[in-house]
Amino acid sequence: MAHDRETISTWKNPTKDVVRFTIHLDGKVKRHYQISPGAAEKIDSIHDQAIRCVKKGVVVSGLAPQLLKEGEEEVPVHVALVEAAAEGNKERAARAAGRLAGKPVDEIVGAIRGVVERHPGAETALVKAQIEAEEQELAELRARKAAIAAEKAQLKAELEGGKSQIDQKLDAAGLGTPVKAGKAGKAAAEG
Fold first, then answer.
1. How far does CA 45 lie from the centroid of its chain?
2. Which residue of 10, 13, 65, 82 shows the fewest CB atoms closer than 10 Å?
């Protein structure tokens, strides 16, 4: 199939794991991809959003959200994707635990070490992406807090200005402020 340069995107695997995904082309037609660590694959650009969808500077979905499109900057992965990947790792660990049930402890520990050695950066990358997403959310919350504080200060100033106007009107009418009138009445009663 011939493509011109504008219809092809190059996707690189920056992880330490092989990335596998399948794109459903038309009806029953599927295209399976397997991209080794550090390798790149040219894929029809029409599938870019299916591979990795970025909204507001965060990867929010995709068949292979960990891939990096040539010419684009790396952006954090949304916490929900990180948690889903972690959940998938837990499911794989549970299946492995089922296969290892009844085996000697040394064999189980060896199997776990083997998984960790084959995928050393996976957990670190997930935690790093989660921290980046949490930091972004924290920045947004801090900005909202600052806006609320500014609005609170403005309302407080308006309230103080309103109280001052009421006090002036009461004084002009010879009634004094309610606090002053209350104190004066209390002093007269005590005197």
1. 26
2. 10
